[in-house]
Amino acid sequence: MIKILLVDDDPNIRRGVRMNLALEPDFSVVGEADDGWEALRLARELQPDIVVMDIRLPSLDGLSAAERLRQFQPQCAVIILTLYDEPSNRKRAEQVGAAAFIPKQKSDDKLVDVIRKIILER
To answer: Is the pLDDT of residue 74 over 90?
Structure first.
């Protein structure tokens, strides 16, 4: 089972992503967070394989949270899923060790494939 943690401050986005991922029999959304600090706490507790994280979050942004997460849990892959598809965000995501960067507008088509690719490359 592939354990996934969803991090987005919009509950409707989390619900939509969760519903999409629930269609995959080997995926399990083990938790959800609405800010970066909660994401870090849940990642320590739940030990997910994948964290799907937005960039703009209250209290601790997604890129800073991803960087911290990669320091204490390097085996966990972070996928940035965001509306803010800008070169500076892509560059920073790469710098902090994100495994992938997906614009939300393309997420339905790509997220499942990207998760599978990351797991296979381990």
So the answer is: yes
Task: Tell me the one-letter amino acid at 43.
Answer: A
Is CATH 3.40.50.300 correct for 2-120? no
- Which residues are registered as beta bridge partners of 5? 31, 51
The residue type found at 26 is D
DSSP for 27-50, please give it. Answer: EEEEEEESSHHHHHHHHHHH--SE
Whether the pLDDT of residue 7 is over 90: the answer is: yes
List pLDDT tens digits, range 49-70.
999 999 999 999 999 999 999 9
Cα–Cα distance between 7 and 88 in angstroms, integer? 21
pTM of the model: 0.96
**63 and 35 in contact (C-beta within 8 Å)?**
no
Q: Which residues contact 22 (CB under 8 A, 6 or more apart)?
A: 29
Q: Would you kindly state where each structural domain of the chain is located, as residue ranges?
A: 2-120
